[in-house]
Protein backbone atom coordinates (compact mmCIF):
# COMPACT_ATOMS: atom_id res chain seq x y z
CA UNK A 1 0.00 0.00 0.00
CA UNK A 2 2.90 2.37 0.74
CA UNK A 3 4.21 1.87 -2.81
CA UNK A 4 0.81 2.81 -4.21
CA UNK A 5 0.68 5.96 -2.04
CA UNK A 6 4.21 6.95 -3.11
CA UNK A 7 3.35 6.41 -6.78
CA UNK A 8 0.16 8.48 -6.49
CA UNK A 9 2.08 11.24 -4.64
CA UNK A 10 4.79 11.36 -7.31
CA UNK A 11 2.21 11.43 -10.10
CA UNK A 12 0.33 14.27 -8.37
CA UNK A 13 3.55 16.25 -7.87
CA UNK A 14 4.55 15.84 -11.53
CA UNK A 15 1.05 16.85 -12.64
CA UNK A 16 1.19 19.97 -10.42
CA UNK A 17 4.54 20.93 -12.00
CA UNK A 18 3.14 20.41 -15.52
CA UNK A 19 0.07 22.54 -14.76
CA UNK A 20 2.10 25.31 -13.10
CA UNK A 21 4.49 25.41 -16.07
CA UNK A 22 1.59 25.51 -18.52
CA UNK A 23 0.06 28.64 -16.93
CA UNK A 24 3.23 30.50 -15.94
CA UNK A 25 2.92 33.00 -18.82
CA UNK A 26 -0.75 33.74 -18.03
CA UNK A 27 -0.59 33.94 -14.22
CA UNK A 28 0.76 36.71 -12.02
CA UNK A 29 0.89 34.37 -9.06
CA UNK A 30 0.89 30.58 -8.72
CA UNK A 31 0.26 29.03 -5.31
CA UNK A 32 1.32 25.41 -5.02
CA UNK A 33 0.20 23.15 -2.21
CA UNK A 34 3.19 22.33 -0.02
CA UNK A 35 6.88 23.04 -0.48
CA UNK A 36 8.11 24.18 -3.89
CA UNK A 37 10.09 21.01 -4.69
CA UNK A 38 10.06 20.91 -8.51
CA UNK A 39 8.18 24.21 -8.70
CA UNK A 40 11.25 26.16 -7.63
CA UNK A 41 12.16 26.82 -11.28
CA UNK A 42 8.89 28.73 -11.80
CA UNK A 43 9.56 32.36 -10.86
CA UNK A 44 6.05 33.41 -9.83
CA UNK A 45 5.29 30.22 -7.90
CA UNK A 46 4.90 30.31 -4.13
CA UNK A 47 4.94 27.18 -1.99
CA UNK A 48 2.09 27.14 0.56
CA UNK A 49 2.88 25.08 3.66
CA UNK A 50 -0.01 24.59 6.08
CA UNK A 51 1.66 22.48 8.78
CA UNK A 52 4.84 23.13 10.71
CA UNK A 53 7.01 20.08 11.27
CA UNK A 54 10.38 21.87 11.23
CA UNK A 55 11.44 24.99 13.15
CA UNK A 56 13.11 27.24 10.58
CA UNK A 57 13.72 30.16 12.93
CA UNK A 58 15.76 30.22 16.13
CA UNK A 59 13.78 30.51 19.37
CA UNK A 60 15.07 34.05 19.84
CA UNK A 61 13.00 35.31 16.88
CA UNK A 62 10.22 32.69 16.70
CA UNK A 63 8.09 34.90 18.97
CA UNK A 64 7.76 37.31 16.01
CA UNK A 65 5.63 34.67 14.29
CA UNK A 66 3.43 34.11 17.35
CA UNK A 67 2.81 37.87 17.65
CA UNK A 68 1.75 38.42 14.01
CA UNK A 69 -1.64 40.09 13.53
CA UNK A 70 -4.00 38.63 10.91
CA UNK A 71 -2.91 39.43 7.35
CA UNK A 72 0.67 40.29 8.34
CA UNK A 73 3.87 38.47 7.48
CA UNK A 74 7.33 38.05 8.94
CA UNK A 75 10.43 39.40 7.28
CA UNK A 76 11.79 37.13 4.56
CA UNK A 77 14.55 34.69 5.49
CA UNK A 78 16.62 32.06 3.70
CA UNK A 79 15.77 28.41 4.29
CA UNK A 80 18.33 25.76 3.45
CA UNK A 81 17.68 22.04 3.67
CA UNK A 82 18.50 19.87 0.67
CA UNK A 83 18.00 23.05 -1.40
CA UNK A 84 17.86 26.79 -0.70
CA UNK A 85 14.82 29.05 -1.00
CA UNK A 86 13.32 32.22 0.45
CA UNK A 87 10.68 31.77 3.12
CA UNK A 88 8.33 33.79 5.36
CA UNK A 89 5.35 33.25 7.65
CA UNK A 90 1.87 34.77 7.29
CA UNK A 91 -1.06 34.74 9.71
CA UNK A 92 -4.42 34.17 8.07
CA UNK A 93 -7.51 35.69 9.71
CA UNK A 94 -8.84 33.42 12.45
CA UNK A 95 -9.67 33.17 16.12
CA UNK A 96 -6.27 33.04 17.80
CA UNK A 97 -6.84 29.99 20.01
CA UNK A 98 -3.09 29.29 20.29
CA UNK A 99 0.05 31.24 19.40
CA UNK A 100 0.53 29.78 15.90
CA UNK A 101 -3.17 29.61 14.94
CA UNK A 102 -3.66 30.54 11.29
CA UNK A 103 0.08 30.61 10.55
CA UNK A 104 1.26 29.36 7.16
CA UNK A 105 4.79 29.30 5.74
CA UNK A 106 5.44 30.40 2.19
CA UNK A 107 8.41 29.76 -0.09
CA UNK A 108 9.83 31.37 -3.20
CA UNK A 109 12.69 30.44 -5.50
CA UNK A 110 16.20 31.48 -4.51
CA UNK A 111 16.73 32.39 -8.18
CA UNK A 112 14.63 35.53 -7.63
CA UNK A 113 16.17 38.82 -6.54
CA UNK A 114 15.39 40.04 -3.03
CA UNK A 115 13.20 42.83 -4.45
CA UNK A 116 11.23 40.28 -6.53
CA UNK A 117 10.68 38.11 -3.46
CA UNK A 118 9.55 41.10 -1.37
CA UNK A 119 7.05 42.01 -4.10
CA UNK A 120 5.82 38.40 -4.25
CA UNK A 121 5.56 38.18 -0.44
CA UNK A 122 3.60 41.43 -0.28
CA UNK A 123 1.29 40.30 -3.09
CA UNK A 124 0.58 36.92 -1.46
CA UNK A 125 0.06 38.57 1.95
CA UNK A 126 -2.65 40.77 0.45
CA UNK A 127 -4.24 37.96 -1.57
CA UNK A 128 -4.36 34.82 0.61
CA UNK A 129 -6.31 36.19 3.59
CA UNK A 130 -9.27 36.83 1.25
CA UNK A 131 -9.46 33.08 0.57
CA UNK A 132 -9.01 31.80 4.13
CA UNK A 133 -11.74 29.34 5.05
CA UNK A 134 -14.01 29.57 8.09
CA UNK A 135 -14.34 26.84 10.75
CA UNK A 136 -18.07 26.38 10.12
CA UNK A 137 -17.29 25.52 6.46
CA UNK A 138 -14.01 23.61 6.84
CA UNK A 139 -12.51 21.98 9.95
CA UNK A 140 -9.04 22.77 8.55
CA UNK A 141 -9.77 26.52 8.56
CA UNK A 142 -8.25 28.94 7.95
CA UNK A 143 -5.30 27.17 6.26
CA UNK A 144 -7.40 25.17 3.81
CA UNK A 145 -8.21 27.97 1.38
CA UNK A 146 -11.69 28.11 -0.16
CA UNK A 147 -10.49 27.36 -3.73
CA UNK A 148 -8.61 24.28 -2.47
CA UNK A 149 -11.58 23.08 -0.43
CA UNK A 150 -13.87 23.54 -3.41
CA UNK A 151 -11.50 21.65 -5.68
CA UNK A 152 -11.22 18.81 -3.15
CA UNK A 153 -15.00 18.59 -2.90
CA UNK A 154 -15.38 18.45 -6.68
CA UNK A 155 -12.64 15.84 -7.06
CA UNK A 156 -14.25 13.66 -4.36
CA UNK A 157 -17.57 13.94 -6.21
CA UNK A 158 -15.94 12.93 -9.50
CA UNK A 159 -14.15 9.98 -7.92
CA UNK A 160 -17.39 8.45 -6.73
CA UNK A 161 -17.88 6.12 -3.80
CA UNK A 162 -14.58 5.99 -1.85
CA UNK A 163 -15.32 2.49 -0.51
CA UNK A 164 -15.80 1.15 -4.04
CA UNK A 165 -12.54 2.77 -5.18
CA UNK A 166 -10.67 1.42 -2.14
CA UNK A 167 -11.93 -2.12 -2.79
CA UNK A 168 -10.92 -1.90 -6.47
CA UNK A 169 -7.46 -0.58 -5.61
CA UNK A 170 -6.94 -3.40 -3.12
CA UNK A 171 -7.93 -5.92 -5.79
CA UNK A 172 -5.43 -4.37 -8.22
CA UNK A 173 -2.62 -4.48 -5.65
CA UNK A 174 -3.29 -8.17 -4.90
CA UNK A 175 -3.11 -9.16 -8.59
The assigned structural class equals: alpha+beta
Query: Helical region count?
Result: 5
**What is the H/E string?**
HEEHEEEHHH
**Please, how many domains?**
1
The overall strand count is: 5
Radius of gyration: 18 Å
Q: Which residue ranges are poorly predicted, with pLDDT under 50 across at least 5 consecutive positions?
A: none
Instruction: State the end-to-end CA separation.
Output: 13 Å
Proportion of helical residues: 40-55%
Task: Tell me the β content.
Answer: 15-25%
Q: What's the main sheet like?
A: 5 strands, mixed
Walk me through the topology:
Blueprint: H1 2-23, E1 30-33, E2 45-49, H2 59-66, E3 77-80, E4 84-91, E5 103-109, H3 114-127, H4 146-159, H5 162-174
Parallel strand pairs: 1-2
Antiparallel strand pairs: 2-5, 3-4, 4-5
Account of the protein in words:
It is a single chain. The protein is an alpha+beta fold. The chain has one domain (2-131). 41% of the residues lie in helices and 16% in strands. It has a five-stranded mixed beta sheet with strand order 1-2-5-4-3, with helices on both faces. β3 (77-80) and β4 (84-91) form a beta hairpin. It starts with a helix and ends with a helix. 23% of the residues are buried. The model has no long low-confidence stretch (mean pLDDT 88).
Give a quick precis of the structure:
The chain has five helices and five strands.
